[in-house]
Amino acid sequence: MENNDKIEIEFLEPKIPYRETITKSARADYRHKKQSGGAGQFGEVHLIVEPYSEGMPIPEIYRFNGQEYKVQNRDTQEINLDWGGKLVFVNSIVGGAIDARFLPAILKGIMGRMEQGPLTGSYARDVRVIVYDGKMHTVDSNEISFMLAGRNAFSTAFKNAGPKILEPIYDVTVSVPGEFMGDVMSDLQGRRAMIMGMESEKGFEKLKAKVPLKEMSSYSTSLSSISGGRASFSMKFSGYELVPSDVQEKLLKAYEAQEKEE
Prior knowledge:
Helices cover 26% and strands 37% of the residues. The protein has 6 helices and 13 strands.
């Protein structure tokens, strides 16, 4: 299109669908208070976040900075997220510290933050949130106050809970003539691939590997160059895995720079 039609084209790398999660438990609280004539806004939420895996029991006691926090599971909601993984929302409020009618607003605030994760704006997943305390005002408390309090408390706790970025991993199968096998394998290893196995089939070598999607953007061109166009490959989504620390640092810096530009 650039050469034939003289149309100016902007080339961008495909956006990788990263995910965010946490690796340890953390606690946070947030008070939303606003007065501007007439009825104000007030909502305070105390919560705990922790990484969640299927069937994981809820501890009765959490310890943070030498202080104990007892948890009573009064109600649990498991939410299957549209983007994969789960959010488990636990109501552990005793003594009417927060009226039950405000819990859906707190959950809405948390969900809003999970749709735009605190690290890179990517979807967050596999998190359990326990709301155990808070405060409300008989006049000024409303849904918007608790939605904002829940959102901000969750964001703070998430950042203190060993947050990690997850990246999509693909099963890649490469069919290549034997004489190019060494070069193809070296190229894949340079793409952070994990070689899973090899087998021979009809004069070709079949190489199987798990490769991060990020590293596959220019693979077609590279493989064609290495094999003189004689190799082919297929790829299929496998799952999500934690990115290495150095890759996470680069992603965080890139996101910060993007935020500043906007």
